Amino acid sequence: MTAIHIYHFMPDKLNLYGDIGNIIALSKRAKWRGIDVKVTDVKETAGLSLTDADILFIGGGSDREQAIATQELFKIKDEFKSAIEDGVPALTICGGYQFLGEKYVTPDGHELKGLNILDFYTESEKERLTGNIVIESATFGQIVGFENHGGRTYHNYGTLGDVISGYGNNDTDKKEGLHYKNLLGTYLHGPILPKNHEITDYLLQAACERKNIEFGPLENNNVAEENAKKVIIDRLLSEK
Ligand code: GLN
C-alpha cells in the first residue's frame, strides 16, 4: 500500500514542549484510516531531495538550537521553497516557523538570517509571550495550545486565525500563525496536533489528495477527543 512520507527536520534539536507529539498524531490518525506512514528523521541535509516528501514538519527550539538548525536547513532552502510552492503540506512550529522568514533578531540585537522562503521577519524581546492560547479560525474552528516565545512575528499572509485569549504572532495585532498554500506556521506548542485534530486531518487530507490516496473516515470515532478539547477551551475562556 502507498504510504504518506513525513519528513521530520532536526528532531534532535527542534523538539520543544513535546513537539514530537505532532508526528505521533499524524501517524495515528493516518493509521486509524488504514493509511500507512513512513517518517524520515532529517538531521543532515546535504544532497537531500524532497521529491517524495508528502508532509514536512519542523518543531520549535531555543535561539541557540534554532541557529544551528538554520545553518543545516540553509543547504536545502531552494528544495524547501519549491515544495511549499508546489503545495506540499507543511507544519512549522515557533522557532521552525520563525526561520522561514527573512530574519530573526535576538533580544540583544544579534541578527540570524532566516531561509527567506516567505516575506516576513521576527524580532525578539526579553519579555516572553507565554501561556495558554485560544484562537478562532475560519478554517479549523477553535484552536487551543500553549505558547512560549520571545519572538514577535510580523507578516501580511493569511493567518491561522484571531486570538481570543493569549498573544499569537506578536503582542499587538491579535493574529496567530501563518497559512500560505498548504504551509502552516504557528507559535502553538503543547503539542498542537493532538489537541487540534482538525489541523492534523487538514495536513493528512492535503497529502492524500496530492497522492491520490483515499482519505476516508476514522476506524474509531473521536468524540472523546473533541469533548476533551471543548473542556480545555471552556475552562481557559472562563478563567480570562
Ligand atoms: N527562539 C524562539 C523564541 O523564543 C523560539 C522559541 C520556541 O521555539 N518556543 O521566540
From TrEMBL:
Question: One GO molecular-function annotation for this sequence?
Answer: carbon-nitrogen ligase activity on lipid II
Q: Provide a GO biological process annotation.
A: cobalamin biosynthetic process
Q: Which reaction does it catalyse?
A: L-glutamine + H2O = L-glutamate + NH4(+); beta-D-GlcNAc-(1->4)-Mur2Ac(oyl-L-Ala-gamma-D-Glu-L-Lys-D-Ala-D-Ala)-di-trans,octa-cis-undecaprenyl diphosphate + L-glutamine + ATP + H2O = beta-D-GlcNAc-(1->4)-Mur2Ac(oyl-L-Ala-D-isoglutaminyl-L-Lys-D-Ala-D-Ala)-di-trans,octa-cis-undecaprenyl diphosphate + L-glutamate + ADP + phosphate + H(+)
Residues bound to substrate are 128
**The keyword Transferase belongs to this UniProt entry's keyword annotation:** yes
Q: What is its EC number?
A: 6.3.5.13, 3.5.1.2
Domain CobB/CobQ-like glutamine amidotransferase intervals: 6-196
Q: Name one Pfam family in it.
A: GATase_3
Sorted UniProt keywords: Cell shape, Cell wall biogenesis/degradation, Glutamine amidotransferase, Hydrolase, Ligase, Peptidoglycan synthesis, Transferase
Q: Which SUPFAM superfamilies match?
A: Class I glutamine amidotransferase-like
Q: In which pathway does it act?
A: Cell wall biogenesis; peptidoglycan biosynthesis
Write down the InterPro entries for this protein, in alphabetical order.
Class_I_gatase-like, CobQ_GATase1, GATase_3, Lipid_II_synth_GatD
Task: Please list the residues that make up the active site.
Answer: 94 (nucleophile), 189
Function summary: The lipid II isoglutaminyl synthase complex catalyzes the formation of alpha-D-isoglutamine in the cell wall lipid II stem peptide. The GatD subunit catalyzes the hydrolysis of glutamine to glutamate and ammonia. The resulting ammonia molecule is channeled to the active site of MurT.
Q: Which family does it belong to?
A: Belongs to the CobB/CobQ family. GatD subfamily.
Subunit annotation? Forms a heterodimer with MurT.
Stated name of the protein:
Lipid II isoglutaminyl synthase (glutamine-hydrolyzing) subunit GatD
The scientific name of the source species is Macrococcus hajekii
The upper taxonomy is:
Bacteria, Bacillati, Bacillota, Bacilli, Bacillales
